[in-house]
């Protein structure tokens, strides 16, 4: 089996998660399987430089702090992010988070908010909370709940919230590949939480796994994920860092840090009905994710041509579509509390 560069430190925790039992009938392609794998208040003052998006290899990218984030922000990517949000809610049985947040949070921050869908759902669920979403791209809806606001901001810059603006809950999801200095990020989060406030990170590994050895058949995926690791390190913002987050959060001073680990199947191969449904959605999400996670970092950091990247991506998608490959990724929900006496 091809091991993740970060796998050794948490192998016991991952092994404690039960293996996903495969549906024997999923090993052969059928029509159902084939069908499943085919692909009001806006508080940002938008300067022309912010919405003057950049285009590269047929995809659209942010212009604010241009080049600092390697994934696109076009409509295809927005649809993928919304689908991923749906998958996470299915994993959590409709919930938005795992942390034991009190029922009456007053100020909530969702950094790297993307389309803003998590922030808007949270604002619906907690109408008395003031929910703020920040992102490099102003791609969120203009008409949202009165208790939800969006700002264009770079989470890696110095945070400028006043002490009176401290948050009860800070949430981040899918930030791997976005952050150069994780300890600094958690230092700023800690500083801007109220005593007793919670942080939750929801991160998925970019390293594909299998419990039955079928990953060894996915040669293109093995090459792809090794190159993603190499390219993202060269870019300065490593993608496969989900397994490091618990340690970073503990080192920042948070207490009662908890990590919940889930196996997210890549395709409708599991026997369990819920896992099969999640895998069906995840297959569509993953096929859509291959290009965003590849193009910019491969062409910018590794010097690949668009044609070379497209050739590898075609093989990767074929590996994901192969019903004999019982693949999954690890998703980690890591949450902790700022001590009351801080």
Task: Outline the secondary-structure elements.
Blueprint: H1 11-15, H2 31-37, H3 48-51, E1 54-56, E2 59-61, H4 75-91, E3 107-111, H5 117-125, E4 130-135, E5 148-152, E6 167-173, H6 182-191, E7 193-204, E8 209-210, H7 219-235, H8 245-251, E9 255-265, H9 273-301, H10 306-321, E10 327-337
Parallel strand pairs: 3-4, 3-6, 4-5, 6-7
Antiparallel strand pairs: 1-2, 7-10, 8-10, 9-10
Q: Explain this structure to me?
A:
The structure is a single chain. It is globular, with a radius of gyration of 20 Å. The model is unreliable at 35-45 (pLDDT under 50). Strand 1 and strand 2 form a beta hairpin. The protein contains ten helices and ten strands. Helix 7 (219-235) crosses helix 9 (273-301). It is of the alpha/beta class and 342 residues long. It has helices at residues 11-15, 31-37, 48-51, 75-91, 117-125, 182-191, 219-235, 245-251, 273-301, 306-321; strands at 54-56, 59-61, 107-111, 130-135, 148-152, 167-173, 193-204, 209-210, 255-265, 327-337. The strands form two sheets. Strands 3, 4, 5, 6, 7, 8, 9 and 10 form an eight-stranded mixed sheet that branches. Helix content is 35%, strand content 19%. It has a single domain (7-337), classed as 3-Layer(aba) Sandwich (Rossmann fold), CATH 3.40.50. Residues 19-31 have a biased composition (Low complexity). Residues 1-40 are annotated as: Disordered. It holds the Pfam family Methyltransf_23.
């Amino acid at each position: 089996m091809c091991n993740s560069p970060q796998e050794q430190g948490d192998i016991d925790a991952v092994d404690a998660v039960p293996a996903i039992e495969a549906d024997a009938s999923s090993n052969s392609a059928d029509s159902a399987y084939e069908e499943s794998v085919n692909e009001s208040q806006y508080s940002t003052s938008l300067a022309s430089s912010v919405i003057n998006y950049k285009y590269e290899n047929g995809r659209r990218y942010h212009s604010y702090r241009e080049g600092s984030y390697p994934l696109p922000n076009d409509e295809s990517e927005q649809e993928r992010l919304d689908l991923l949000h749906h998958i996470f809610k299915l994993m959590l049985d409709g919930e938005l988070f795992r942390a034991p947040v009190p029922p009456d949070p007053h100020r909530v921050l969702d950094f790297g908010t993307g389309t803003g869908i998590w922030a808007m759902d949270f604002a619906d669920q907690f109408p008395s909370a003031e929910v703020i979403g920040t992102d490099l791209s102003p791609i969120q809806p203009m008409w949202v709940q009165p208790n939800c606001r969006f700002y264009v901001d770079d989470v890696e810059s110095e945070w400028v919230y006043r002490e009176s603006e401290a948050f009860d809950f800070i949430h981040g999801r899918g930030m791997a590949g976005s952050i150069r200095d994780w300890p600094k990020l958690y230092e700023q989060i800690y500083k801007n939480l109220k005593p007793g406030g919670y942080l939750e990170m929801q991160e998925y590994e970019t390293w594909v796994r299998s419990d039955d050895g079928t990953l060894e058949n996915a040669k293109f995926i093995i090459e792809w994920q090794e190159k993603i690791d190499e390219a993202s390190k060269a870019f300065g913002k490593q993608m496969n860092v989900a397994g490091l987050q618990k340690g970073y959060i503990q080192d920042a001073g948070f207490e009662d840090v908890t990590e919940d680990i889930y196996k997210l199947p890549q395709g409708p191969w599991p026997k369990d009905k819920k896992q099969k449904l999640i895998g069906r959605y995840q297959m569509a999400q993953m096929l859509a994710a291959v290009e965003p996670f590849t193009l910019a970092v491969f062409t910018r950091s590794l010097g690949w041509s668009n044609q070379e990247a497209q050739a590898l991506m075609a093989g990767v998608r074929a590996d994901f579509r192969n019903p004999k490959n019982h693949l999954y990724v690890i998703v980690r929900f890591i949450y902790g509390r700022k001590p009351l006496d801080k």
